[in-house]
Amino acid sequence: ANAMRNISQLTANYATTSRAVPESYVAVELSYFKASYAYDSVSFNGTETDITAYSPSTESCSEHCTSTQYFTFPIDNKDIELSVKKGLTYDVHATNGTSKLSFTIPAGYFQAVLDEKALQLEHIPSSVQQPAAEVKVESKDSKSVEMSKYWFDEATVAEQELFTEWAFINRKEINTELVSSSKELEMLTYWYSKSSVTDKSNILTWIINKK
């Protein structure tokens, strides 16, 4: 008797991939004659759950004062399917049992939701419906790139820094010589010198990504 208006809207979320989806829920706009209490829970199909406000409650007064609550409550997709037969009746409870309001969403509403679900899933490409297969891409380095990487890892940190500075200056062509008594640096500069301009670029990119 206290209820003046109820607008209930179901948002049903269904998975189209292997990823988890948000929980389905019912959003309610409930207006009733202003009272000293507010509604804070919903029960249906033998379970009771707290409501979640999605907007602050409002009040208005003309001949009578009314309060309007805006809230959501979760609903399992199994309950949506069960409601296709007899609809869904849910009760809204006020704190300490001071008031209870009962509302029914007709079965046809849920049937329309499931029909829309079937229509949407029908038009989803099969590549989207199935989890994407893992694709491994293997790149084959040239001999000079492979050996340059090997000898770079064998060099000390100081030698790596020295080589990096020299290699960057000589990234197009070798114009200066890197003099060193280190075997690692000697082999590193040898293979770098034998590499193409593209390979030199790949080597420098690899070195930068290591830092």
Written description of the protein model:
The protein is of the alpha+beta class. The chain has 7 helices and 8 strands; from the N terminus they run ββββββαββαααααα. Helix 1 (77-86) crosses helix 2. It is elongated. Mean pLDDT is 86; it is low at 127-139.
Low-confidence stretches: 127-139
Class inferred from helices and paired strands: alpha+beta
Largest sheet: 4 strands, antiparallel
Q: Quick one: overall form?
A: elongated
Write down the overall mean pLDDT. Answer: 86
Q: How much strand content do the residues show?
A: 25-35%
H/E series: EEEEEEHEEHHHHHH
The overall strand count is 8
- Major β-sheet strand ordering: 1-2-6-5
Query: Ends: how far apart?
Result: 72 Å
The share of residues in helices is 25-40%
SS field, number of helical segments:
7
